[in-house]
Design goal:
The protein is about 40% helix and about 20% strand. By secondary structure, the chain is α+β, with helices and mostly antiparallel strands. The protein is elongated, with a radius of gyration of 32 Å. The structure holds zinc ion. Zinc ion binds next to loops.
């Protein structure tokens, strides 16, 4: 389970277990499994003083380690300015002498926690809350790091973890000891991760950080290049909103109207750091039948058929605006369901009237390269390889039905 989901809904005894693992009631034990679950959430309380000895562990089957309270060291000395140290959290509490022994019995699977002789009967000189103020435990921290690695900004992660909104997981975070988590800390962790700006943080790119900023940049480019463009905001079947921008230049729209009998749909993923999908509509040039010209494009934050359809409808509209029509008959796609749905949505009976599409229903062609890939994936091995070879011959070389039948 993702740690963030664990924090959203922590075990009901989390708060109690954190107290137990701080104050160590006499005779307190946990199973190994529970130890591994809860211990990261008191990592801020204990620092190791003596790690387990490997040889002893092997000999006895019990892994024993010794821990001391985080505040066992001398408090930070105040500086001339009165600020104790450079970090926001400082240790000004009275020195705390509590030390414990953690014994994991590897054969019974039981972990026993006891005070060391020297600190028997002693209480912490502070509360667990004071430690939580001083340092965030690694259970909470790891959940934050996980989210940062997914590419969310420090601001977004903080909002999710300790924000006031409905989507915030703050109630669970408090139970897990993260009450005092804040933006400054999350920002510092993000810097420590040294995430490369590219892959690790897809939502942040160059100067632009958000979809809105990316759109603004795209708009500016379209204006500079004197292209038509339109921002799209579309609600898909699932009720989710998606954003996009569609663009084209007049002279390429004219080409599309003239040569778009067969239109190639191309979609590219991971085109920018925000992981938007780039769609390009191309048609063949007048010169030969092999060169395709990009005629219109769209950058969309989702690959839903509805959003692609909105882009297509806009292109149709622009072409009509030029007094022309997009006489698409064949849509050459890589068999993407979303693209097929978009074509169906755009070139329906009604729109055909208004768009003047005289060819009737648009048919789909599949690109040879993807057909080749599929054949190679499906037909291999001793028995099927000859079949694959014949089908590839039909795909690439045969130009007539008779020749094709012969091959197969
Ligand atoms: Zn203590």
């Amino acid at each position: 389970m993702e740690t963030v989901n664990f924090l959203r809904d922590p075990p009901s005894d989390m708060a109690q277990r954190r107290q137990d693992l701080t104050h160590i009631p006499s005779g307190f034990t946990l199973t190994l499994e529970d130890h591994d679950l809860y211990w990261p959430f008191v990592s801020n309380v204990w620092s190791i003083s003596t790690p387990a000895n490997k040889a002893t562990t092997e000999k006895t089957g019990i892994e024993t380690s010794w821990w001391q309270c985080r505040f066992s060291r001398q408090p930070d000395a105040p500086t001339a300015s009165g600020i104790v140290n450079s970090s926001r959290r400082d240790h000004t509490r009275t020195r705390c002498e509590v030390r414990i022994k953690v014994a994991k019995n590897l054969s019974t699977g039981i972990v026993t926690y006891t005070r060391t002789k020297a600190s028997e009967g002693q209480e912490h000189s502070h509360s667990l809350d004071e430690i939580d103020q001083y340092k965030i435990n690694s259970g909470v921290k790891n959940a934050v790091l996980e989210e940062l690695r997914k590419g969310y900004s420090a601001k977004e992660v903080t909002k999710n973890f300790v924000g006031k909104g409905k989507a915030s997981i703050y109630p669970g975070v408090i139970v897990c000891g993260g009450e005092y988590l804040d933006t400054a800390e999350v920002g510092a962790w993000r810097r420590d991760l040294k995430l490369p700006a590219t892959e690790a943080d897809p939502r942040r790119s160059g100067k632009g950080e958000t979809w809105e900023e990316e759109l603004a940049k795209a708009e500016e480019s379209c204006q500079r290049l004197d292209m038509r463009y339109r921002l799209l905001r579309v609600k898909n079947q699932a009720g989710k909103w998606s954003n996009g921008i569609v663009w084209a230049s007049d002279h390429r729209l004219k080409t599309l109207a003239k040569r778009g009998y067969i239109t190639l749909f191309d979609s590219t993923h991971k085109t920018n750091l925000l992981q938007f999908k780039l769609f390009t509509w191309m048609c063949r040039t007048e010169v030969d039948h092999k060169t395709y010209l990009p005629c219109a494009g769209a950058l969309l934050d989702s690959e839903s058929g509805d959003t692609i359809a909105a882009a297509l409808a806009q292109i149709c509209h622009w072409i009509k605006d030029l007094g022309l029509e997009w006489r698409i008959k064949y849509a050459l796609t890589d068999d993407s369901a979303a693209e097929q749905r978009a074509v169906a949505l755009t070139f329906t009976e009604e729109s055909k009237e208004s768009l003047g599409n005289v060819f009737g229903e648009v048919e789909h062609l599949l690109c040879q390269w993807h057909c080749k890939q599929t054949l190679n994936r499906q037909l291999h091995g001793d028995v099927l390889t000859p079949a694959n070879r014949h089908l590839q011959a039909a795909l690439w070389s045969r130009r007539t039905e008779a020749g094709c039948d012969e091959s197969i």
